[in-house]
Amino acid sequence: MLRAVYEAADLAPGVISNWLEDRGLLQINVARTASPQQYTQSLNKTLADVLSKAHWFQVWRGEVISVASPACPLRVHFQISEFDPAPLVEMRERKGLVTVHVSPTATADEFAHAINPALEELLAGGQWFQLWHGEILTAASPEAALV
């Protein structure tokens, strides 16, 4: 099973977000005390780091997209929603890009609570995989180790 999990956490001073990858799992931590503006900005840097160092790929209409895809490199972008009122999280996916719109009032705990079901649905769509030490893991893969 392939999972990506966000958690609000008590991180070291000055750290707003960080990540850890394991077999079948990408865990993203967000500082519990960060404002939406702080954590969306930090998550943009964190996910750029994830995509440059981890092994996650999108399959779009039969084409495998990675951070190194020349025409359309894989990226994730977090931004504060312009809608008022705004849903806590709204996720949109297209070739090479996942955009996550975040409510300007969403605490880190509310954000984590709202994004996890959206991510579960995104991964269940079968367009994502992780290459872990030569093994390809998808949403349909056998149970993966948890961190």
Q: How would you describe the overall organization of this protein?
A:
The structure is a single chain. By secondary structure, the protein is an alpha+beta fold. It is built from 2 helices and 10 strands. The chain has helices at 36-53, 108-124, and strands at 3-9, 17-22, 25-31, 56-60, 63-65, 75-80, 89-94, 97-102, 128-132, 135-137. A hairpin with a 2-residue loop joins strand 7 and strand 8.
Strand content: 35-45%
- What does the largest sheet look like? 4 strands, antiparallel
What is the total tally of β strands? 10
The geometry reads as globular
Radius of gyration using CA atoms only = 15 Å
- The number of helical elements comes to 2
Structural class estimated from helices and strands: alpha+beta
Low-confidence stretches: none
**H/E series:** EEEHEEEEEHEE
Q: Can you describe this structure in just a few lines?
A:
The protein is an alpha+beta fold and 147 residues long.
